[in-house]
Automatic annotation (TrEMBL):
<dbReference type="GO" id="GO:0042853">
    <property type="term" value="P:L-alanine catabolic process"/>
</dbReference>
<dbReference type="InterPro" id="IPR036291">
    <property type="entry name" value="NAD(P)-bd_dom_sf"/>
</dbReference>
<feature type="domain" description="Alanine dehydrogenase/pyridine nucleotide transhydrogenase NAD(H)-binding">
    <location>
        <begin position="149"/>
        <end position="297"/>
    </location>
</feature>
<dbReference type="InterPro" id="IPR007886">
    <property type="entry name" value="AlaDH/PNT_N"/>
</dbReference>
<dbReference type="Pfam" id="PF05222">
    <property type="entry name" value="AlaDh_PNT_N"/>
</dbReference>
<feature type="binding site">
    <location>
        <position position="198"/>
    </location>
    <ligand>
        <name>NAD(+)</name>
    </ligand>
</feature>
<feature type="binding site">
    <location>
        <position position="15"/>
    </location>
    <ligand>
        <name>substrate</name>
    </ligand>
</feature>
<feature type="binding site">
    <location>
        <begin position="298"/>
        <end position="301"/>
    </location>
    <ligand>
        <name>NAD(+)</name>
    </ligand>
</feature>
<keyword id="KW-0560">Oxidoreductase</keyword>
<feature type="binding site">
    <location>
        <position position="203"/>
    </location>
    <ligand>
        <name>NAD(+)</name>
    </ligand>
</feature>
<dbReference type="InterPro" id="IPR007698">
    <property type="entry name" value="AlaDH/PNT_NAD(H)-bd"/>
</dbReference>
<dbReference type="GO" id="GO:0000166">
    <property type="term" value="F:nucleotide binding"/>
</dbReference>
<keyword id="KW-0520">NAD</keyword>
<keyword id="KW-0547">Nucleotide-binding</keyword>
<feature type="domain" description="Alanine dehydrogenase/pyridine nucleotide transhydrogenase N-terminal">
    <location>
        <begin position="4"/>
        <end position="137"/>
    </location>
</feature>
<comment type="similarity">
    <text>Belongs to the AlaDH/PNT family.</text>
</comment>
<feature type="binding site">
    <location>
        <begin position="267"/>
        <end position="270"/>
    </location>
    <ligand>
        <name>NAD(+)</name>
    </ligand>
</feature>
């Protein structure tokens, strides 16, 4: 198969869909890989790295789309890319169709086949191509929190780990899933005193088993949260209710009970945030202050560490991309039910229920398309 790796052109996106190691894997299976010049620069991979791995470089994004049967990238195509997409071309990337009607209609018009990272789903309902970004954001959260607790950045001026004779900072983590667990590990490693709250007792049991001594678990309810925020130096928001907006666990009126200079890092801001006063910010302007509480609410935290994020993402996406290249998307999706759930649009027809419902579009039965192809 001919694979194309364009340079991401969305504002501030430095990740790349395939690394030189990924190119080498495709080449081993006999595929051709075209990479746009400079595509890996933002993540620390040079054109020479790609060439050595066996890729062929192309100067423009139009060349890459023009040649490729399958495009592997990171973010959804943006307007400038729409007209480059050819009928039946396979796009394997994040789409988040339910948040963009324009993108959905563009992919239908172009008659593209769109396999979305975010809806590839394992039988245990976990989302293997979203987990790596939660791991990155979770581990970044205490690091960003520690930074903004510094006085010159308007924080309380407390060192997360303390020193001998001085108590460490109190870190409260709301939600003990992927983000929360990774945040707890790093905060505990810094030496902070960490509390994780969740509504799943089973999850709290697991965390209690695996976490070090400076991490305690507590059931998440309004009473416990109100008491804990008074003591917290850093609050990390890491709650997720699948398919719904995050609940506002820390409300506007609760900020006055917090310590002046305390910091909130609301990782869940991409789902509306679990701290009511959080609204999305950017890496250029990551924080704002309300009631003396520093709010860090960057919606794409992994974007700040593109080297790590690219490797983490491609470790997870590459095996699927190789399968798609080896078998073609129809056969790959027939054999792998997780991958099949990634199909959102096939040749311009919407096949994912959530997308059809979001924009009132007709839903085509994906099994019929696949069976038909098989016959
Ligand atoms: N800002 C970013 O850059 C970024 C990056 C990655 C992920 N995220 C977001 O981080 C959030 C968390 O993602 P995740 O992968 O950890 O999800 P997850 O499903 O692994 O974990 C969510 C946890 O929240 C718990 N929860 C639900 N209701 C709760 C409540 N009322 N109180 C306490 N806990 C509660 C669940 O039991 C679960 O354990 C998501 O909104 C995700 O989109 C943001």
């Amino acid at each position: 198969m001919i694979i194309g790796v364009p340079k991401e052109i969305k504002n501030n996106e430095n990740r790349v869909g395939v690394t030189p190691a990924g190119v080498a894997e495709f080449r081993k299976s006999g595929h051709t890989v075209y990479v746009q010049t400079g595509a890996g620069e933002g993540s620390g991979f040079s054109d020479a790295d790609y060439e050595q791995a066996g890729a062929m470089l192309l100067p423009t994004i139009a060349d890459v789309y023009g040649q490729a049967e399958m495009i592997v990238k990171v973010k959804e195509p943006i307007q400038e890319e729409y007209q480059l997409i050819r009928e039946g071309q396979l796009l394997f990337t994040y789409f988040h169709f339910a948040s963009s009607e324009e993108l959905t209609h563009a992919m239908i018009e172009r008659k593209a086949t769109c396999l979305a990272y975010e809806t590839v789903e394992l039988p245990n309902r976990s989302l293997p191509l979203l987990v790596p970004m939660s791991e990155v954001a979770g581990r970044m959260a205490p690091q960003e929190g520690a930074k903004y607790l510094e006085k010159p950045l308007k924080g309380r001026g407390i060192l997360l780990g303390g020193v001998p004779g001085v108590r460490p900072a109190n870190v409260l983590i709301l939600g003990g899933g992927v983000v929360g667990t990774n945040a707890a590990k790093v905060a505990a490693g810094f030496g902070a005193q960490v509390t994780i709250m969740d509504i799943s007792l089973n999850r709290l049991r697991e965390l209690d088993d695996i976490m070090p001594k400076n991490v305690v678990t507590q059931y998440s309810n309004d009473y416990n949260i109100r008491a804990a925020i008074k003591e917290a130096d850093l609050i990390i928001g890491a709650v997720l209710i699948p398919g719904a907006k995050a609940p506002h666990l820390v409300t506007r009126d609760m900020l006055k009970d917090m310590k002046p200079g305390a910091v909130v890092v609301d990782v869940a801001v991409d789902q509306g945030g679990c701290i009511e006063t959080c609204t999305p910010t950017t890496h250029e302007n990551p924080t704002f202050i309300i009631d003396d509480v520093v709010h860090y609410c960057v919606a794409n935290m992994p974007g700040a560490v593109p080297y790590t994020s690219t490797l983490a993402l491609t470790n997870a996406t590459l095996p699927y991309a190789i399968k798609l290249a080896n078998l073609g998307w129809r056969e790959a999706c027939l054999r792998d039910a997780s991958l099949r759930l990634g199909l959102n649009v096939v040749n311009g027809e919407v096949v994912y229920k959530g997308v059809a419902e979001a924009w009132g579009l007709p839903l085509t039965n994906v099994s019929k398309i696949l069976e038909h192809a098989h016959a």
